[in-house]
Protein: D-galactose/methyl-galactoside binding periplasmic protein MglB
Organism: Clostridium saccharobutylicum DSM 13864
Amino acid sequence: MKKIIKTLIFIVITILFTGQLINVTQTSIYAEVPNSNTKTPVNIAVFLYDLNDKWINLVKQNLENIQKEHNSEVNFTFFDAKGNQLIQNQDIDNVLKQRFDALIINFADIRSDSISDIITRITKRNIPLIILGDPTESLLNLVKLNNKAIFISSDNEQCGNLQGQIIVNEWNHNKASIDKNNDNILQYIMLRGRNNNVAADIRTKYSISAINNAGIKTEKIETAYGGWDEETAKTAIESLFLTYNDKIEAIISNNDAMAIGAVKALQKYGFNNGNKEKTIPIVGADGIPEAIDLIKKGFMTGTTIQDPNATAKALYKVGLNLSLGKYALEDTDYKFDSTGITIRLPFAEYKP
């Protein structure tokens, strides 16, 4: 009888142990191989400084296309600051009360005093962050405190150099028609995006240095602030043309939208309509379709291409990595510059 009881106890213990082992094994399998049918996309909030900016709008359109192609992986929610940092601050406040896996911010005013507070709050919440734009030194130091935050920016030094080279080539081939007063000095107007804007500062500096490094002397007639906007630039150039008229030998614009405004302003006075003798060289940046069309028609001199699709892909790939807890550059060809946290996307000269 005792042998029977011992045998029964042994059998029961064996069954219980085997059941536990099976349960543990099954749990381990499910943990290692998650059910792909239950996969949900990561949610990324995208804050853009102004959707009236044609290039920024193209970036948004490309992000939307990426979402359509990869709707099981990512969902973008867009917020338009309309050029107002206060509006953007409120949008960010609202989003921080919700559940998003990552944030992409293209600040309306990256030098605003409120930016440091925003970055600090995002860092405290341990939310991955991509800043679309050039870093200031103080902002760079602040963002480095967040090991889930990086910058994605354009190579604005390259942009300025390319713009300058376009002017150099135009001067070398058409100096007789450009140098109206025959003083061997290029008199120009600089159309800047905004005052105290990092991208505008860099593009302005290197476009002129490229011209000077080619042995061409320059004289700035005026700096006009066009706010990256076509209509604002058009109004500014209309006024400046009435003041300086035939003294203007070139217009260098920080972006294409303002360059287009400059073309339209000059056309009002009979310039830049296809007659080379009545054409003032105008160079822009971004490579938006309308600017390229004006170049093909001979109304605008040149531009540098900043591919909005390449920018959108970088935001998507890096944003997805950070949202999933991966290294920002994992499985990409991107590299950080000397800051250690900034990806700089290249420009290229548009060649018809």
About this structure: Residues 321 and 328 are 5 Å apart (CA to CA). The two ends are 100 Å apart (CA to CA). The domain at 157-305 is CATH 3.40.50.2300 (Rossmann fold). Confidence is low (pLDDT under 50) at residues 1-38.
